[in-house]
Design brief:
About 35% of the residues lie in helices and about 25% in strands. The protein is an alpha+beta fold and about 130 residues long. The protein has a domain at about 40-134: Alpha-Beta Plaits, CATH 3.30.70.330. It has a five-stranded antiparallel sheet with strand order 1-2-3-7-4, with helices on both faces. It is globular.
Length: about 130
């Protein structure tokens, strides 16, 4: 298949088979990337550890950063605390959360969307660690 600039930009496609095969490839690649770091609780709460320069600096101070999946954004701090204590068998001292709204970016016809999510900052007792951040 030749590369067509206009089809790529405006999403006009003629073949439904191409769309189906591309969707299957996208799903498989997303699953492969997320299997290594996604943590699942039995109740269905998805916690995704955020690994960045800032979060690694905070990890040295016994503070860990997680992202909560969009569908679980309305979960309160008590549920998050219980799930982290059960999953990692640690004692949580403090939890701080922040919600990020859905945001559109772009100036022309091409606009991208950043999904909404919740960021969780977890502080543990001294001498306790979470092995993912080491």
């Amino acid at each position: 298949m030749k590369f067509n600039f206009f089809k790529k930009i405006w999403g006009k496609r003629d073949d439904k088979e191409e769309i189906i095969s591309e969707n299957k490839e996208n799903v498989e690649s997303k699953e492969d990337k997320s299997l290594n770091i996604r943590i699942e609780k039995t109740e269905g709460l998805y916690l995704l550890p955020l690994i960045s320069e800032k979060s690694m600096k905070l990890a040295k101070e016994n503070k860990y950063v997680f992202l909560i999946h969009n569908s679980d954004r309305k979960v309160n701090k008590n549920v998050i605390k219980d799930s982290i204590e059960k999953m990692f068998k640690v004692n949580v001292v403090k939890i701080a959360t922040s919600n990020f709204k859905r945001r559109e970016r772009g100036r022309s016809k091409l606009k991208t969307v950043r999904p909404s999510f919740k960021k969780v900052f977890v502080t543990l007792k001294k001498d306790q660690t979470i092995p993912i951040f080491e």
